[in-house]
Amino acid sequence: MINIRKAHERGHADHGWLNTWHTFSFADYHDPEQMGYSSLRVINDDRVAAGGGFPTHPHRDMEIVTYVLSGALEHQDSMGNGTVIRPGEVQRMSAGTGIRHSEFNASASEEVHLLQIWIMPDRSGLTPSYEQKFFDAAEKLGRLRLVASPDGREGSVTIHQDAKLYAGLIDPEHPAEHNLPPGRHVYLHVARGAASLNGEALKAGDGARIESESKIRLESNSSAEILLFDLA
User: Fold this and answer.
1) Which residues pair with 210 in a beta bridge?
2) What residue spans of the chain are helical by DSSP H?
3) Interatomic CA distance for residues 62 and 47, integer angstroms
4) pTM of this prediction?
5) Which residues pair with 193 in a beta bridge?
6) Burial label, 131 (beta-carbon count in 10 A; 0-12, 13-18, 19+)
7) By the 8 A CB rule, do 207 and 34 touch?
8) CA–CA distance, 119 with 229 (Å, rounded to integer)
9) Most exposed among 17, 89, 93, 116, judged by the fewest C-beta atoms under 10 Å?
10) Rounded CA gap, 13 and 190, in Å?
């Protein structure tokens, strides 16, 4: 069963410096039917204007994954990390007992487009930690490449939850198939472009809850970037 939620059905806010779409309830957007999916709590589709950003703010007891689609995001935190996140890189921050961080557009002239993902950890009170890794486009072309997992397998970043995150790039010459384990909750998000999921047309911002399917096939007449969450 594939249950599609269209991009325009998400929560939306435009703050001038930030244009954001919320897949699940977040900030001023509240929908009791959209409070998350298994341990997946947040997918925020953010576009931050040049010079804009999120001033220093706190988090705790959350696994936070940042995935940049275009532009560059400058990050600083109370653990002493100061980095710039660019397309192809995945950042994982375990907030645990508490961290403070800021995120700003690293460019004075170009927008940065990113997805911020929150996954609830399998336990509270973890020691805060940070990880950032690059995944080459060739590793994701025509397949779903593991980029986050509970044990860091295949060079993925490590998240403290029974959850896996895959990223894929699809085009007319490079469709992708992916086997789904039985009894799991699967959520697919189209990060950019347009694709079909087992024949169902999807565009950027669309999402799909997938249950009781043994395999999915992803195709595109142009190009698409896909994220897939395999959840307990």
Assistant:
1) 2, 186
2) 137-140
3) 22
4) 0.97
5) 224
6) middle
7) no
8) 10
9) 17
10) 19
pLDDT of residue 212: 93
CB count, 10 Å around CB of 224? 23
Neighbours of 68 (CB within 10 A): 22
Q: Are strands 144-149 and 157-158 parallel, antiparallel or unpaired?
A: parallel
Are 191 and 66 within 8 A, CB to CB?
no
Q: What is the DSSP string of 174-193?
A: B-EEEE--TT-EEEEEEEEE
- Quote the tokens at residue 104: 């700003």
Digit-coded pLDDT (tens) for 54-102: 999 999 999 999 999 999 999 999 999 999 999 999 999 999 999 999 9
Q: Check if the beta carbon of residue 110 is closer than 8 Å to that of residue 61.
A: no
> Cβ–Cβ contacts within 10 Å for residue 42, how many?
19
Place of tokens 């009781």: 212
